[in-house]
């Protein structure tokens, strides 16, 4: 197996690992108010998140930045909480696309730092980290798209089969994630 395929597989497996469900929750609340017809906007939104985490993942892998991971582990659920709260009071059409894309990009920076320790442990003392870094990021994006696919599939099921209102569905998912991310943030407060 080539280095590319190894790191690609590690990337998508890492994002889909249920032990690291915080990233799954973020992607869930990022896209829970979208439907299949919004796939282009949703793809841009997830790509903004990927760009953000790719930047900090690269900076950390090249040892350009180093941060206290206890703060990153605390900030990750805070980003989830803020994104879920942003979903609550407004109808989807009233939400600013620019704000949502900016949030995805900026919060992606934080999530990328969360991935960095895992990637650095995988890379060890490899001389050339460009291919592993690139393939890991592509794997992460692939994993995120799998999450998006299942969220959209579940949303379509709820909206079309069970006739749940899109606003109510988004409110339900976002509220559940608010509860989970709030508890995660409290548990991870750096002391």
Question: N-to-C terminal Cα separation, in Å?
Answer: 43 Å
How many structural domains in the coordinates?
1
Helix content: over 70%
In DSSP terms (H or I, runs of 4 or more residues), the helix count works out at: 7
Low-confidence stretches: none
User: What Rg, in angstroms, do the CA atoms define?
Assistant: 17 Å
Largest sheet: none
Shape: globular
**Amount of beta strand:** under 5%
> pLDDT average, as an integer?
92
Judged by helices, strands and strand pairing, the structural class is mainly alpha
Compressed to H and E, one letter per element, the order equals HHHHHHH
How many strands in all? 0
Can you describe this structure?
With 191 residues, this protein is mainly α. The chain is built from 7 helices and no strands. The protein has helices at residues 3-16, 21-31, 39-61, 69-87, 97-123, 130-161, 166-187. The chain is globular and about 55 Å long. The chain starts with a helix and ends with a helix.
């Amino acid at each position: 197996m080539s280095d590319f395929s190894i790191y690609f597989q590690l990337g998508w497996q890492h994002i889909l690992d249920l032990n690291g469900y915080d990233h799954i929750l973020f992607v869930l609340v990022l896209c829970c108010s979208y439907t299949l017809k919004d796939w282009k906007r949703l793809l841009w939104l997830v790509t903004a998140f990927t760009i953000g985490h790719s930047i900090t993942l690269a900076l950390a892998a090249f040892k350009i930045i180093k941060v206290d991971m206890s703060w990153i582990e605390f900030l990750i659920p805070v980003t989830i909480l803020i994104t879920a709260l942003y979903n609550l009071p407004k109808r989807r059409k009233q939400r600013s696309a620019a704000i949502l894309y900016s949030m995805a990009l900026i919060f992606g920076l934080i999530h990328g730092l969360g991935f960095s320790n895992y990637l650095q442990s995988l890379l060890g003392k490899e001389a050339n980290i460009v291919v592993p870094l690139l393939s890991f990021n592509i794997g992460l994006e692939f994993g995120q798209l799998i999450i998006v696919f299942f969220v959209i599939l579940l949303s379509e099921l709820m909206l079309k089969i069970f006739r749940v209102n899109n606003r109510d569905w988004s409110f339900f998912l976002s509220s559940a994630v608010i509860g989970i991310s709030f508890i995660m943030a409290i548990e991870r407060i750096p002391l």
